[in-house]
Amino acid sequence: MPVTRLILGTLVLSLAACGGGISIGFGSGFDNFAPAVSLATAASSVQAGQPVRYVAAASDENGIESVAFYRIDGDGSALLGSDGEFPYEWTAVAPADGRTSLSVFARATDNHGHQADSAIVTIPVTP
């Protein structure tokens, strides 16, 4: 005898507390997709030791939990900070250690834990 399966998204089955009724519904509480995120700054360059404001645009059909901002340091990245409220923004201080550029990216996390990174935004650092 063959076994047949039918999967239609998220199936919700609830038993009513009063009256013993049964309700079956199909919901959209299922999320397999990462959020969309982009990063921008109005600065075209920055002096060493001075602040630079970055703004991230993040969206997801189930909402954004937070956006974290990272500075590229050599082969890795350093967390600058995180913002859990729209508008998602962070002010970074340009390094005063002789670097000639400041590279930052944003990482958005949606309400289901999925993450996505923006493109890296690099601006020159002047002495």
Question: How does this structure look, described?
Answer:
This protein is mostly beta strands. Helices cover 0% and strands 57% of the residues. The chain contains no helices and 11 strands. The protein has strands at 10-15, 22-27, 36-41, 46-47, 51-59, 64-73, 76-83, 88-93, 101-110, 115-117, 121-126. The strands form 3 sheets. Strands 4, 6, 7, 9, 10 and 11 form a 6-stranded mixed sheet that branches. Strand 6 (64-73) and strand 7 (76-83) form a beta hairpin. The protein is elongated and about 50 Å long. Residues 1-27 have low confidence and may be disordered.
Report strand %. over 45%
Task: Determine the structural class based on helices, strands and strand pairing.
Answer: mainly beta
User: What can be said about the biggest beta sheet?
Assistant: 6 strands, mixed
Low-confidence stretches: 1-27
